[in-house]
Amino acid sequence: LSVCLRFVGPEDNINSCSFVQMMEQRLENAFEEAQDKVLESYSRLSVEIQSTAQVTGSPAVSLVYVVKSENAVLNGTVSSGLLNQLTAELVGYFLFFPPLIIAERKCPRASWEGFA
């Protein structure tokens, strides 16, 4: 699963452990809000970022991650469906960066070309 951010700050090193950990926590908070909004039951979800990438010359950043409930990895369709229940503004609020794509199975490179 991935989220594509329109940009991150120039001082943010997207490959640093601190950035990755910060974004994992922020994504977990967004998923918690999505669960509160759409589900009657609640389970603690954790997010593990697998990779970060930024296309040269583009401000857009892709975060590829998995969502886990206890020790099981959630299906990508379920995870993306849950996060997509939130508005882009609300996801941006939780992530502190505006999203280009909220939650997709992948972040197609072609969708970034207009933001280079």
Question: What can you tell me about this protein's structure?
Answer:
Strands 1, 2, 3, 4 and 5 form a five-stranded antiparallel β-sheet that branches. The longest helix has 22 residues, at 17-38. The protein has one domain (2-108): Alpha-Beta Plaits. Helix content is 33%, strand content 27%. Residues 108-116 have low confidence and may be disordered. A hairpin with a 2-residue loop joins strand 3 and strand 4. The two termini are 23 Å apart. The chain has 116 residues and is an alpha+beta fold. It has helices spanning 17-38, 76-83, 88-95; strands at residues 2-5, 45-54, 61-69, 72-73, 99-104. It contains three helices and five strands; from the N terminus they run E-H-E-E-E-H-H-E. Helix 1 packs across helix 3.
Task: Sum up the structure in keywords.
KIAA1549, globular, 116 residues, KIAA1549-like b, Alpha-Beta Plaits, alpha+beta, 5-stranded antiparallel sheet, single chain, 5 strands, disordered C terminus
Report the CATH topology name: Alpha-Beta Plaits
In the CATH hierarchy, what is the architecture at level 2?
2-Layer Sandwich
Radius of gyration: 14 Å
Q: Gap between N and C termini, in Å? A: 23 Å
In terms of topology, how is this protein built?
Blueprint: E1 2-5, H1 17-38, E2 45-54, E3 61-69, E4 72-73, H2 76-83, H3 88-95, E5 99-104
Antiparallel strand pairs: 1-3, 1-5, 2-3, 3-4
Helix pairs in contact: 1-3
